[in-house]
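Revision sheet: structure tokens.
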Amino acid sequence: MRDGKRVAGSMGRRSLSALAAVSCALLAGSPAAWSNDDTRAHAIAERFAGATEEARKAVEAKKRAETERLHAVKAEAEAKRKSEDAKRRAEAARQKAHQMKADEAEMLERARAEAADREAEQKRALAELDRAEEERAELERLARENKLAEDARLAAEAAEKARIEAARATAEKSQRDAAEKARIEKVRADEVARAKAEADERSAREAKASADKLAAEQAAAAAAEKRAAEERGIAEVAERAKAALAEAEARQAQAARDTAMKAENDREQARKAEHQAEAERQALEAEREQEAMRLTEKIRKAREAREVRQTAGSEPVTSTPDAPAGSAVHAARGAVAPSAPRRVTVLLMMAAGSKGIRRWNKSADPMLCIAEVCYVSAGPAIAAKRLPRSTAFGPGVALGSRAGACNNSLGCVFRDVDLEAASALVQPIDLRIVRHDRREATEARADETCAVSGGKLDCRAGVSSSTWRAWIVPEDIAARAGAASLEAAIASGLPVQEASIRGDR
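Predicted:
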């Protein structure tokens, strides 16, 4: 480009020199020549001017070409640079996208791992909480059972001590009474002897006076006879007194022997009762320990089953081991009378048990079970509380609410009980602390003979077994009868007229 500028400058200088020379020549000639020369000069000037213009145009064209070439080179370089920049940006973007994708995958995997760890930790924490709660509940239950057993043992020991003290007091009183009786008898014997002596003495004095009055001639004989009579009377009095004293001593000795024998028998009975109470306490302790071991085993199996369910993510369907043996009969007979009422009120009267604490406390804590459902009474005016059988036999009921409104009562009203079919196996339960008294199950259905007359409820076809009896009253009739009539029926003892034993009606 610089060479082109130099060429253009030299050509411009030569053109100016030629023009100057032509001008000088024209100025030195004649006017006529000037005109001709003028023409020629103009022609030369035009020619030179045309050459200069062409040269200028050529230079400008060359400049433009060079500029365009430079622009093209620059544009090509710029395009190449932009292409390379674009390639670099694309590569950087690709690498960044790849890195971001890898980072996202890593972050997602880390988040999944952390979520899995958190979920596992939460499951472990929940399992630990459940285990701790169950262990705490089991410890509390065992503590309550131990306290109740200890209270029962202390009460039994106190009762036994009171009975022994009463027996000892009775024996001591009997001994005192016997001694007092012997003393009184001895005093009476002494008084009898003194009275007899005084009577004999009076008789002797009277005989002496009579003898003195008889005759003087018989004085010697009377005196001798008097002495003999006095000696005989004294001997007889002494003999009678001695016999009375011996008899009193014999009675006193016999009373003392009887008292000692009775005291010995009382002590022997007390020892036997103490041994029996100790044996019963040991049997109760062994039974309680066995029940605690069974409960511990059940809790362990339940915990293992729950862990298996948590691992598998599903809840298996299991049956309750306490279901009565007649469930198949219940299912088979459930379709006998589909039109019979299913909602009933059960009026229950239980016989007092004879084992455990029921030997002293002749009462009951009734609960009613039908298949897999149990009912706890809420009173004669409110529907009974419905519980699953597993919950009803758990520590929450045994150590908590127990029999509800029917605590410590042989009679109970269970309102709004669902038989679940036309007939069902009904099983009363007497709640205990460790082992419940499960009474025999009996098939029952709604008693259509129940009626309310004059405010009194009467059912002629109740159900009965060897340890309980019940009226199965349709719920609508029980509602018409009212709470007072239901309580009156329980108070009357539920007389069963047409009932058959073990539900054979």
